[in-house]
Amino acid sequence: MSAPCPVAIRVQTADFDLASEVAALTAGRTDIGAVATFSGLCRDEQGRLAALELEHYPGMAEEEMRRVAEQACARWPLMGLTAIHRSGRIPPGGNIVLVVAASAHRAAAFAAAEFMMDFLKTRAPFWKKEHGIDGSAGDWVEAKDADDRAAERWG
Amino acid sequence: MKLVYFAWVRERIGKAEEEIELPGEVTTVRDLAAWLAGRGEGYAYAFENPAVVRAALDRKHVKPDAPVAGAHEVAFFPPMTGG
User: Among A72, A93, B16, B18, which is disulfide-ready with A112 (CB 3.0 to 4.6 Å)?
Assistant: First the structure.
């Protein structure tokens, strides 16, 4: 029986704070030796974008993120995994997604954070719509083949 | 049966959700998409390239050949672009 791997999954409109989420994951623990964090931000695409609008499938988004997190916990000796994805309108520079993976050693923490992101992108039901600085509600962002390949390489 | 739509599938159809009576000839997700495509211009546009549209039954991803009988909620949406 492996050590418990507390999983925290949230979809929220509010911003998140990286330091607070790391602190929450490590609070009261002395066995964690490595915490890897990944945060994804909204780019302005060379000044073209005023915002990205994140739509999600309430319920399924959280469930799918949890399924991916549980796979990561089964695959690596993790001591905690947090994944937060924002919804709604996010301006350039704003946070979109956060993954925090804790383990005794760095290899598992790095790998689990990357795995979580690769599968979150291809499995969790979120969609991005671009809003231009000219006030236009632009196109839906197209899915990238590269993201599918990134997920497939985990086997 | 409740149908829910997201992103450009929702925009093209012009609604986020609806209740339908499942026609007798509809067995799979693929059949349902084809039946929906015949319900009007917006639906036809949403399903103009049915291979691109993804589906979930009761909040779980499914393939086009999945049977829809017994599902409470069927979702159609484009490939995901979160993260």
Answer: A72
